[in-house]
Backbone:
């Protein structure tokens, strides 16, 4: 199930799902928050509520504001793959090999060095700093020894790092792939839902005031949209 979420200028969260067999484009989640609430906090409540109604997405295409590393990890724990652009720019580096150059798994743990060697041991400390210990003999003979950040310690050659920057670096790398770009293009389909909601159902200009009343009106309009889509699909 391909899913997309939009955060509009109305601070309105709409979650709509798309299926490859041209099934009706239904809205599965609607919420409205005050202007001081951050867009970055919109994804997880949508996942939790749709889980309760057994229509949670397996993939969620979101704005960059929702794409923090914390949101990614929390969504994954809920069984949803959150896809959103990585915010910020990668730090500039010199000619030295840094942790970003090491191969990592999905959790951000180093699995191989730039020379293709696997660490002999990995360890996670309580302070969130991980370490990977490599074979001393192979490190001394390595062609990258002069440029590598792996340092020599009392018990061998070790690299200390935090998983979060590595996960972000891996995300930025995957965002350059054509597969992910093609998948994220589907997010633009939300405009096919958003535009009629504003233009036809007048969601962009409501005649009520107050958060509770506005939320109630928006929910009813979304329900009306779903009825309309279901009727069209039945007639097709």
Residues:
């Amino acid at each position: 199930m391909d899913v997309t979420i939009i955060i509009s200028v109305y601070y309105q969260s709409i979650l709509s799902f798309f299926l490859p067999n041209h099934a009706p484009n239904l809205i599965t989640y609607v919420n409205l928050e005050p202007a001081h609430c951050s867009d970055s906090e919109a994804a997880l409540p949508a996942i939790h509520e749709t889980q309760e109604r057994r229509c949670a997405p397996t993939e969620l295409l979101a704005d960059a504001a929702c794409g923090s590393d914390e949101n990614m990890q929390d969504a994954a724990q809920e069984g949803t793959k959150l896809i959103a652009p990585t915010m910020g720019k990668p730090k500039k580096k010199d000619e030295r090999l840094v942790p970003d150059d090491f191969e990592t798994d999905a959790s951000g743990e180093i699995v191989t060095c730039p020379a293709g060697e696997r660490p002999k041991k990995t360890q996670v400390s309580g302070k969130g700093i991980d370490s990977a210990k490599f074979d001393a003999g192979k490190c001394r003979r390595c062609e990258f020894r002069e440029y590598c950040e792996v340092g020599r310690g009392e018990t061998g050659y070790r690299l200390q790092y935090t998983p979060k920057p590595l996960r972000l670096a891996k995300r930025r790398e995957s965002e350059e792939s054509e597969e992910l770009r093609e998948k994220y293009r589907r997010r633009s389909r939300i405009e096919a839902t958003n535009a009629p909601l504003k233009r036809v159902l007048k969601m962009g200009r409501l005649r009520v005031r107050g958060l509770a009343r506005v939320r109630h009106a928006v929910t009813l309009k979304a329900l009306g949209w779903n009825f309309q889509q279901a009727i069209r699909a039945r007639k097709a």
